[in-house]
Request: fold
Amino acid sequence: MPNHTDTYTQLTRHLHELHLLGSTISLLSWDQQTYRPIAAAAHRADQIAYFSKLHHELFTSPKVLGLIDELASGVAKDDSDQAVNVRELKRSSDRQRKLPTDLVEELSRNESLSQDAWIQAKKTSDFKTFSPWLEKLLSLKKRVADCYGYADSRYDALLDEYEPGASSREVAKVFESLREPLVKLVRTVTESGKRPPTAKLTGNWPRAAQEEFARRAATAVGFDFSAGRMDVSTHPFCTDLGSGDVRITTRFDDGFFAGSFYSVLHEVGHALYEQGLPVAKFPGLPRSQAISLGIHESQSRMWENLVGRSQAFWTHFFPIARELFGSRLDGVTPQELLFAVNDVRPSLIRTEADEITYNLHVLLRFEIEKDLIEDKLQVSDLPELWQTRMQKYLGIDVPDHARGCMQDIHWSAGLVGYFPTYTLGNLYSAQFFESANAELGDLNAMFAKGQFMPLLDWLRKNIHAPGKTYTATQLVQRVTGKPLSPEPLLRHLNAKVSQFYGA
Reply:
């Protein structure tokens, strides 16, 4: 009879080494998007490709796969730490063993080079220069999807990387359940005739003051700067480099305060999740990893919107803003600032979109990338289709590619299938927030006093600490007592429209 305890010990030792290698790849990728010299692009791509190849070879080695398969054949069907780790490792290894190592290496190298090409092309809105890179990446992602296999849509094989078990058919139903209510809310806003004083968010917002304000807010909601840092990148992101090292980035615009600030809150939400996972206890094991990108986005969208755009949040933070920005806020009342950051109107940039129209941005990207992967759309047709869909969903014209189909980093980084998790995250966040509020009491009263730890502690206990113990569907049911529903999000959005645009 095999000694499963010894087998499990051997496996965890191998996975700890893989975790160290994976965190090294993450560090190289972080540096690539922050401080790496432009001239080092090719060398950095070779480094990341080499280590990605090595990581894949080690994980799919006969030794590691044999240990996983042996344990999987006798693992208990419960939620114990070992059972969770073996179950999830079996799932991951079954997918990874289908990928040729040379494909992993080629994809990694092209993702690195493509991101550099995107950054440079975006500066001049040059889609023609970037399009060959996008075509190459999509070709590689199609090969990956075909290796994984799929029952219905090739897109589903890629979506499963970010939201395990989800399908494009289910995602389409989610968007359909939201489409009519969101359109109705936009109509209510338009017909109200009320317009927030958004001009008060533009002008001269000194970068140093913006950064200090963002750091104070991040600290207040629980981000541990002794175990993380904040830097600048072309597109904001959060990355976990291992125990005690979670990093976020943002981009600053001296002429527009809200863009950077809410990007920070969004990435801080991701970082709080990473800092709340039991990484030190289970290094490199699923028990210390996020369930899905949808659950991850629920944390970022919650802190960005349900907390950060609330009246209670600004009751606490407006005096701090006055202290840091000084005369820049002369003549601006707390209510005016609150209304301005809750402006609802169609806009070009997804990351700066309001809570209501945001999901229409995601719908556009979901439909386009699905068609690209299923060979129903050519890359050369992307700019024209983007313009058509922006008119259809948001009623606005796209002035250039940089603010159109080239605005997001996702496709240049090979993150095809990621976008739907933003809308799923919105749904999860609203449902979790309702449950937290019911259990903890009046959260807004706490926020107004600068008390954010009760919510964070609740999230740590219910969302972060379990790691991958449950699926996203199971977690929602356990935490809220109900299956995922659009109703909590719609209640939140209706209440916000009533607050700012009602009679």
